[in-house]
Amino acid sequence: MRQILNIAHYEMLHIFKEKILFLMVFLVPLGYAALFGAAYVSAVLNNVPVAIVDLDDSKLSREIAAAFANSPHFKVIDGIKTYAELQEGMKNGRVRAGVIIPEHFEQDISRHALTRVLTIYDGSNLIWGYNTRKYIREVFNDFIAGRAASYLAGLGYTKNEVRAIMDTVSLNTEVWYNPTFSYTNFLYMGLIMIILHQIGLLSVSLTVTREKERRTWLQFLSAPVPAWKIFAGKALPYFVAGFFNYALLLWFAARFIQVKIGGSLPLILLLGLLYDVIITAAGFFISTRAPNSLQVTRYVMLLSVPLFMISGFTWPWTHIPAYINFLARLLPSTWMMLGFRQVALKELEMSYVLPHIWALILMAFLAVLAAVTFPKRLNPPPDAGPAINSGPSYPSRWK
Amino acid sequence: MLRQCLAIMRREVFYLWRDRGLRHILLFGSLLGLMLFYAVYSAQVLKDIPTAVFDLDNSAASRELVDKIGKAEYLKLVASTASYDDLRELIKQGKAVVGVVIPENYGRNLALGRQARVLAVIDGSNMIYATNASAALLTVTRTLSAQAGVSALVARGVQLQQAKDAYQAIDISEEAWFNPALNYAYFLVLALALNIWQQCCTLAACLNVIGERGMKSWLQIRACGISKFRFFASKSIAQIFIFMAVVLPLYILGFGALKLPLNCSWAALLLFTLAFAIAVHSIGTLASSFARNAVDAARFGMIIALPSFVLSGYTWPLEAMPVYLQKVAWILPQTWFFQGINYFAFKNAGWNLMAHYILAMLAIAAVCYGAAAVFIARS
């Protein structure tokens, strides 16, 4: 135990001595969480800029315009009066939706002639597209219901009779787990898990490469200390820091970004603990195999986007090909992100998260096994001609 | 002078080639990304949202309703459950995203003109599913209310045409511009691959200065009497040329083989991309000019490159971000590039807007190169 603590102490000195490493371990995760939190803090996409091209200018067309103006989801942009202006506005992003009411619209409706309102929305960004389509339908459903109620009142029905007719069949929609359609609840914790994964992996994966570059790794290899103790000592500070960051970021998300983090606290802690073990062990394993810190930094950083995208956290896994799903299931980030959503957002109990927990336990076991069985010998440098930045050194001003 | 510049460029290409890690990243990083993301989004349109029904009535009217829900755009009936608990269980397990509960006596109430309430449940934990499911159910609601209302009025002795006038007076059609099928692959695949590309380019550019000054050969170069400006300018031209050579197969594969939409001209697109490649290179150069070593330079560059896609507003719109963050985002060339890719590839927003975007990126590049020059000169 003393040997492990000594190695851990030595590693702690490195972390506190190297300013950039210190920032990465303790501040960068919170910094990224704050940055993404600020980006998604509004949570719901409101005030979609919409143009009303009213070619009729009748009472009915003005009622339609008013319905959009009164909707909290839309913001009517003035000054777009023609179809050509609308086309231009859609192209340059001034508006994201448009409503075109044709000439003689009210007159045609009263004559039962064929006429229709055309609604358009921007499909080039599907966050705009999906939400705007939904909002347009909501506005028109309300508008049609309001008109029907007025029409029935005009036929002489009382208020109660109108309500009875209108409510003959009603489809009441309940949205579970995320009733406000909050993008923050949907997305933010996935980003947090990737931040913890990447920054954690990057920090710990430099622990052995740093020793190799300073030619001090030989001391570890030649010391009468078993491999598992070297791993335990060197990984311990990163493990503790990783769990601290996990707790800190969850608190930050719930307190400042208002992300829903419900469900069982022991389950959330268990998931975090397993995730942290995997990241720390996998990072150490990478570090023992990597030629230098530069290569590790390059490869690890490039993995962030693919890890997030293939996980099925945003685009549903049911619509992802089986071989990509298979690949995603080999990664701890997939299980963690989906498992965390089950617990924190859907507030489900243990039985629904068991597959995630078993998968993470298996990965933790394999990662630790791989980390503690590194060979205690120095490999000779490969002789493959003039290789640049692939050996134990890389450009540095202090050499 | 030209021969000297060409020699430096040739040396730079050789250096990049011999850096095996960087070679792999530049050659395969963004191409692998494009293929991976295309595979992820190969379904392209989010259809067949799994829907479960709990029909307590089991009448002709309820079966008609189930049929209507099954035929609604994007919904797909996957289960008919025997209890509400079963339905809830399916949603909990994620096997159904939409659940519909039809009450007892639904058909009878409908025939008698009494109120009948149908419950629809949507799993809101995945917003891509939830927004589409909600939009689909809104259409079902509209049709269902109208039909039931017309029937109720006819049952009360109102003439059929008059009853239809009450509910179906306004006909509405919807069009999604620039991406009519709401194809998710069109929206995201190329942008994600370009995001990987700009990260790869940042990594390469982060070696521009420290890759020379951090090596012992730097003394030799200084002793040769080559001006620093000429030396780094030649290196930069070679690197930017390589960045463009890397993005070209990405565009050919994306717009040619995968048929992603390209509505502006190839020349305009390449010019726009060139301006961005210069801007990204300038950021990498700046990072490498003050970093102590290549690892720190890569870290500094990637601190900007990694979150820039989220901040660019390509997915979650800039307009929905706080104003101060929008101002920060517009400092980054990635914001101009990804916004521009949307405006030009999808919408062909015109040369005036593109010129504005190109100038903005070149201005950022000028500032970064200027700052890098100061760092290089002072050291």
Automatic annotation (TrEMBL), chain A:
Signal peptide region: none
Domain of life: Bacteria
GO CC, one annotated term: plasma membrane
InterPro entries per UniProt: ABC-2_transporter_component, ABC2_TM, ABC2_TM_bact-type
Keyword Repeat belongs to the record: no
Location within or outside the cell: Cell membrane
Family that this chain belongs to: Belongs to the ABC-2 integral membrane protein family.
Protein name listed in UniProt: Inner membrane transport permease YbhR
TrEMBL record, chain B:
GO CC, alphabetical: plasma membrane
InterPro entries for the chain: ABC-2_transporter_component, ABC2_TM
Spans traversing the lipid bilayer: 21-41, 184-210, 231-254, 266-290, 297-316, 357-377
One of the record's GO molecular function terms: ABC-type transporter activity
Transmembrane keyword on record: yes
Residues annotated as domain ABC-2 type transporter transmembrane: 31-373
Name this protein carries in UniProt: Inner membrane transport permease YbhR
Keywords, alphabetical: Cell membrane, Membrane, Transmembrane, Transmembrane helix
Subcellular location: Cell membrane
Topology with respect to the bilayer: Multi-pass membrane protein
Main localization of the protein described in the UniProt heading: membrane
Provenance organism: Moorella mulderi DSM 14980
